[in-house]
Amino acid sequence: MFKRLERTKVFRDPLYGYITVDYKLISDLIDSKEVQRLRRIRQLSGVAMVFQTAEHSRFTHSLGAYQMANLVIQNVEGIESLTEYEKILFLCSALLHDIGHGPYSHAFEHVMEASHEEMTSKLILSKATEVNKILSISPNLANDIADVISHSGKFPIIESLVSSQLDVDRMDYLSRDAYFTGAAYGHIDYFRILRSMKLMDGKILVRASGVHSIESYLMSRYHMYFQVYYHPVARSYECILEGIYSRIKDLVKENKKVDASIEAFLNVIKSSDDIESYIELDDAYVNGFIKQLTKSSDPILNKLSNSFQNRKLFNFVELNNDPSKEYLEYVKGLHNDFNKRYFYRESKVSAVAYLHSKTSDINDIKVLLPNGDIKSLDQYSNLIEGLTKSSYKSLERIYFLED
Amino acid sequence: MFKRLERTKVFRDPLYGYITVDYKLISDLIDSKEVQRLRRIRQLSGVAMVFQTAEHSRFTHSLGAYQMANLVIQNVEGIESLTEYEKILFLCSALLHDIGHGPYSHAFEHVMEASHEEMTSKLILSKATEVNKILSISPNLANDIADVISHSGKFPIIESLVSSQLDVDRMDYLSRDAYFTGAAYGHIDYFRILRSMKLMDGKILVRASGVHSIESYLMSRYHMYFQVYYHPVARSYECILEGIYSRIKDLVKENKKVDASIEAFLNVIKSSDDIESYIELDDAYVNGFIKQLTKSSDPILNKLSNSFQNRKLFNFVELNNDPSKEYLEYVKGLHNDFNKRYFYRESKVSAVAYLHSKTSDINDIKVLLPNGDIKSLDQYSNLIEGLTKSSYKSLERIYFLED
Amino acid sequence: MFKRLERTKVFRDPLYGYITVDYKLISDLIDSKEVQRLRRIRQLSGVAMVFQTAEHSRFTHSLGAYQMANLVIQNVEGIESLTEYEKILFLCSALLHDIGHGPYSHAFEHVMEASHEEMTSKLILSKATEVNKILSISPNLANDIADVISHSGKFPIIESLVSSQLDVDRMDYLSRDAYFTGAAYGHIDYFRILRSMKLMDGKILVRASGVHSIESYLMSRYHMYFQVYYHPVARSYECILEGIYSRIKDLVKENKKVDASIEAFLNVIKSSDDIESYIELDDAYVNGFIKQLTKSSDPILNKLSNSFQNRKLFNFVELNNDPSKEYLEYVKGLHNDFNKRYFYRESKVSAVAYLHSKTSDINDIKVLLPNGDIKSLDQYSNLIEGLTKSSYKSLERIYFLED
Amino acid sequence: MFKRLERTKVFRDPLYGYITVDYKLISDLIDSKEVQRLRRIRQLSGVAMVFQTAEHSRFTHSLGAYQMANLVIQNVEGIESLTEYEKILFLCSALLHDIGHGPYSHAFEHVMEASHEEMTSKLILSKATEVNKILSISPNLANDIADVISHSGKFPIIESLVSSQLDVDRMDYLSRDAYFTGAAYGHIDYFRILRSMKLMDGKILVRASGVHSIESYLMSRYHMYFQVYYHPVARSYECILEGIYSRIKDLVKENKKVDASIEAFLNVIKSSDDIESYIELDDAYVNGFIKQLTKSSDPILNKLSNSFQNRKLFNFVELNNDPSKEYLEYVKGLHNDFNKRYFYRESKVSAVAYLHSKTSDINDIKVLLPNGDIKSLDQYSNLIEGLTKSSYKSLERIYFLED
Fold first, then answer.
1. C341 touches chain D (CB under 8 A)
2. pLDDT in tens, D86-103
3. Which candidate, B231, B110, B96, places its Cα nearest to that of B163?
4. Residues in B 18-57 with any Cβ partner in C closer than 8 A
5. Does A356 touch chain C (CB under 8 A)?
6. Strands in A60-101 per DSSP E
7. Please, which of A338, B384, D260, D386 could form a disulfide with D289 given CB 3.0 to 4.6 Å?
8. Could you report the predicted ipTM of this complex, rounded to two decimals?
9. C-alpha angle D224/C45/C364, rounded to 5°?
């Protein structure tokens, strides 16, 4: 039913050797404006300020998640029971799951009314996008993909393969972020994991014999969080961005001019339905107007954009390290309340290696025992059960501009 | 004499594990505006259109070349005879050798009056740059680095280590470009090469026992040229850029307005001495104004910038593959002479694995025999001698816009 | 004081690139009979029956542990305060720590009166060995090395670097065994670990900022235990060996002839002081006499050695998986009490990711906080504290010959 | 027709991740005595004396060649036209192609009347082997495999895939030997090569677009020859073995006793049809009797076996390096004519990166041009044409025992 390419198209990839495309539909989606835009948005935003080689884009991750879906189809027992339509639905969802990300996504969501997941759905469903036009070759495809991505519950297997505790998204990005940062933690044995997964009675299970590879994967993820994704310097960079965005929003509210070309940005803040403007936004766009703002007549934007441009990052204090009262008072007194809105940020991040199945049964990884029984991962593995408590870690920091 | 940091600063790097900085001077240079700017310029420009993961910046390569200089100092026999000043000169030259690159450098040099090497010298010597200010802690340092980079002949050893057939620049970028493209060719045994090099009587020599590692390195370089750097699709991307730049230049000559914010770009075309404008230029800058040009009222800029933005690349014909006369005529007739200036380009690239020492004695790699004699590499190795002829390959292509 | 080689000697190594030798003493030790013998003893004995590429020898690991000691000397802050003698002591101890291993060491220790650590000391101290002769260039060196290896407490820093929870032995073998098995678990970030270690007030500490790399290392070790070292099939292979050794011992006790050339083996069983005989033993020796035993007139040796030779391994039942009573009775009834001595083995292995500091303060890893305080690792890290309990895993199995 | 396993069997492999077995026939062959014997024969014999980690066995290479055949079947265009029988024939031939190798094969062939290829055929065809019994499930299979391995011309496609200039044997061993030696040369882009191969009109062709990957592969092979396989120290080790074998042969001829247990060895020298004895031979066997010979009453065997055992290798002189006349005379005068038979060897090895198609049309790699024409590789590629001459290198050495 779905047209195949005459010859398999391949993309060289340092992680998988090659990414292979057999369907014309997939090839067309990759070539669409909305997917190509991801080339211009970095996967890890400010992390490249610390791990300078982490310059890879959301595009390469999207291709990677798609290829991981390919590998799931080739390797997971029981997946052959899916129909061709379901496989296509899976491949497309994997490829498109991140198209709603804006530039420097985390900071960006602070000023947007819609999350990046919602934007992904909008882009898929909007008649204005190339992606939507391409998907229209099959009547319900666009809607079904949006359903998968918003976890509607209509396609539980595919939803869990695309987004859960163990999905093609995470399996690709952990490996990929490790490769491009040079961090030694994210190496996961994905082939072993795929071979221990099994589709049975409508559920994705993990065989008991493969639990160790899941344990190892969860620890890798955990370490990537604290060593890479939550790195204080990367967060500091985002804090400056948040300051810039807040200031712009405030100026607009007060009907003041922002002296840079940011029409599309303003349109999007006003309405997340302005798809055309949204698609214009990418890292270059943000970097571009911030560079203009380095000459802004507004002293706050001027200061923040110069900090951003010249990497004069916010300083920070780790509250977990018991800083002295005096120092804390000094930090808190650096800026008055008005300036704090832009130059001062309290930040808290936390993670746990695994959420206890009582808290989050829906996300729980299910283990298939040799005797056919099925158990929650934390019921099966003492190690994981222990980690649901002992691995919880929360980092509280204050970021602040210090001249 | 040169101040050391209290604790060695390290940068994680996927190739070397870590890049280490011991001198305050180096740390300051890395933090300078001009070196940081390289974060915003991709090492391989349009190559990422084919090898989508080749998104690494000139910044990571510059750190890499610096680290390779570190490795030379630690591993090459005889280097210990250099003074500390000479070592600092070497490290700085390695770090700074590429700061003169503009965005999409190759295409860019078509409209500039100065090469990127000349721009590097200007940036180092100009009083307006942070780099120059930092280097002024030692009276002649800036001048000496510029001399090294322009091959003045004043510091022959360091010049040859920074730029020759076998230098820290190439040793880093071959490995690095291979790592980030995923191409299988660039893996060079740099540690073996370093250990076979020897500084003797003011010359860098290669021991006969290490010649095989040089042969292998030269073949890697050769294959990287034809498989990666000269890839037809990457070149096609650059052809569009050249078209855009030419059109802008022509409009300016005719005193017509270009409807995009390109002041800094125009300043630089006018005078390569406008350092401040030059430093503003980076990939974001170019991507930014090209995005504006997609709505240009000039039909030529409009068409070209839309091609660029949406990756509708120029088509091409390989003349080496003996295309039919009819097809060639068709291609040549697609555009009239005026349009050809922007939509049609004849391109020729060529490379040889090794230049014969007769043609290029100055670049020749010198081999140290067990008995103490010194021979040119192509006199010593039949393989290399053969390659000076047989490996010569030239690719002629016509690129053209086809609707 | 210690003579240096004219030119650094290097050994190619896939893990470190190169292993470098600067001292003549080390070079001589590597060339000694006792160290060379380790080429003929596989690092992982029966593991190669499951991970077929795990064919690497104890020799390559010994060189690796030596090189890791080199890396400690080059990278750990504070180590420069050791004297040259102490550094030599450290390097020699790392190189020689395993020379006392016999072929298929684990099974072998069942019939020996001395552990492999005791044998290492004997080989170092015995006047009959080349190693001892080489070490005699410095009056106390042999004794001091033996003291380090037997944890006498005389050189606490070096002892802890050579053998503790975090030592050059483990850091090399985890990486190495992962490389040669192809298992994805053992990749440890040893360079990060080395850089976070600090010698202070006579103790090796780990900076708080490096604790995550230690957490990751401990998890890697844990997974290697259960996935590789305790693999049931590898253990099965050792059970056959234990059967063979027991039978030989029993025959000798009864003054019966064993129809194979095993003089050296018998000598060693009689007295672990027969160094000359001990050195004759290696994998080839054991494989050799087992091959002869495949034609033995003793039916028990005949059966066992044929099993060994043709890889007809003992079957096993995992008691953790709750096998049925019937099956257990069947297994226990397969052999009578006499035969059980050779054809039936109850096996229990267990491990925990980290021993609680209350149980094992001596082995505890100490963490240096930013404020200068020192804490036990499990006091500092909740994750590790949790693992001291939750990661405990014990595997009970019955191995048995089943025709 | 051929029975499939209920669940795919996998072997972990560091090169391919996993080696997969779907057919019961293949699984049975792997478990056979003759294939298992290859676990006890090192792939690179004496090379481990130089590259100490090169301890991998012919078994892992045989599995690797089999897996490469799997990859050919999955990736090469046109291969789907082979029948299932032909595919099985291909897989079996790849797996079994090396079972005829003896221990330290190169030296061993000096005293044998049959080459290892002939021994492979004998083992496959002899009723005495397990392999033969397993293959008998299909009437002609054993014969057809022997035909493939002896290049009978009956199955030209499969023959060329199993043994030619570009075959599954070489593609596996270059990668594998590079991985286990740590040499940086053997990394070949096998996936790219497979994708550029095409089965057309009964011939395996390489598309012009993939020729660069073939050029790179040929250079890798060439460098592996001179850096690894022909390494002088590895050859020296083999020279001692050749001396030992010659001496044994001479003693036997003179009806003198050899004081070691070498019945099987003697049987095999007498008749290469003594399959049962042949299968007994492995590295352990040879190492075992050499150890016994270190106490031999024959002074020649005594000296040689002690050299072998204690790695006191023959010295050598490279004739290519123009040694002085005096030194050569000294070397030649060290031993009288009788002793030279055992203690002195003239050795010559040579290789070329590619044999000219005029000399060896049968081995030539054929290139498929875009227009459908087919050319010999050296006609198509100037580089290769040049290498047929310039890469020829011959090394002449004299090896000799020097006390």
1. no
2. 999 999 999 999 999 999
3. B96
4. 18
5. no
6. none
7. D260
8. 0.93
9. 105
Alpha helices in B126-257 (DSSP H): 130-135, 141-149, 156-162, 168-181, 190-196, 211-224, 232-253
Average pLDDT rounded to a whole number, residues B100-113: 87
**Which residue among C12, C55, C180 sits closest to D57, beta carbon to beta carbon?**
C55
Question: Which of D6, D18, D67, D193 would best serve as a mutation to test chain A binding (most A beta carbons within 10 A)?
Answer: D18
Q: In terms of C-beta density within 10 A (0-12 exposed, 13-18 middle, 19 or more buried), how is residue D85 classed?
A: middle
Contact D288/C283, CB-based, under 8 Å?
no
Pairwise CA distance, residues B367 & B204, whole Å = 9
Supply C233's token pair: 């099939």
- Cα torsion angle, D117, D119, D122, D124, sign: negative
CB distance B185–D188 less than 8 Å?
A: no
Token couple for A210: 């493969």
* Tens digit of each residue's pLDDT (9 = 90 or more) over B309-353: 888 889 999 998 889 999 999 999 999 999 999 999 999 999 999
Angle at which helices C211-224 and C382-390 cross, to 10°? 20
List of residues 6+ apart from C384 with CB closer than 8 A: C215, C218, C353, C354, C377, C378
Query: Tokens 């040929």 map to which residue?
Result: D218
The Cα–Cα gap between A66 and A162 comes to 10
Task: Report the distance separating Cα C271 and Cα A295, nearest Å.
Answer: 86
The secondary structure of B132-154 as a DSSP string is: HHHHTTSTTHHHHHHHHHTT-SS
Beta strands C17-23 and C344-351: pairing type? Answer: unpaired
- Tell me if D17 and A195 make a contact (CB, 8 A cut-off): no
Instruction: Collect all residues of chain C within an 8 Å Cβ-Cβ radius of residue D180.
Output: 14
Strand partners for C368: C207, C374
Cα angle C230-C231-C237, degrees, rounded to a multiple of 5: 100
Question: Which residues is C42 bridged to in the sheet?
Answer: C57
- Quote the pLDDT of residue D234: 92
Give residue for tokens 């050792």.
C238
**How large is the angle between the packed helices B232-253 and B299-309, nearest 10 degrees?**
150
Contact A365, A165 (CB under 8 A): yes
Angle of the A382-390 helix axis to the C382-390 helix axis, nearest 10: 160
Mean pLDDT of D113-118: 90
Best of A11, A187, A191 to mutate (most D CBs within 10 Å, chain D):
A191
pLDDT > 80? residue C70: yes
CA–CA distance, D27 with D2 (Å, rounded to integer): 12
For chain B, say whether D188 makes contact (Cβ under 8 Å).
yes
Angle at Cα B115 formed by Cα B109 and Cα B116, nearest 5°?
90
- Pick from B48, B52, B283: which is nearest to A63 by CB? B52
D124, D142 contact by CB (below 8 A): yes
Which range in A181-195, C316-330, D177-191 is most confidently predicted, on average pLDDT?
C316-330
Considering Cα of D107, then D110, then D113, then D117, what sign does the dihedral take?
Answer: positive
The alpha carbon of residue C157 is apart from the nearest alpha carbon of chain A, in Å, by: 28
Q: Could you read off the pLDDT of B224-239 as tens digits, one per residue? A: 999 999 999 999 999 9
Q: How many Cα atoms are found within 13 Å in the side-chain-facing hemisphere of C196?
A: 22
CB A50 within 8 A of CB A234: yes
Measure the CA–CA gap between A216 and A236, rounded to whole angstroms.
30
Task: Round to whole Å and give the CA distance between A226 and A215.
Answer: 17
Q: Which residues face B397 on adjacent strands? A: B318, B347
| Cβ pair C284:D280 closer than 8 A | no
Q: Are C187 and A185 spatial neighbours (Cβ–Cβ below 8 Å)?
A: no
Residue A400 distance to chain B (closest CA, Å): 20
Q: Do C310 and D60 touch (CB under 8 A)?
A: no
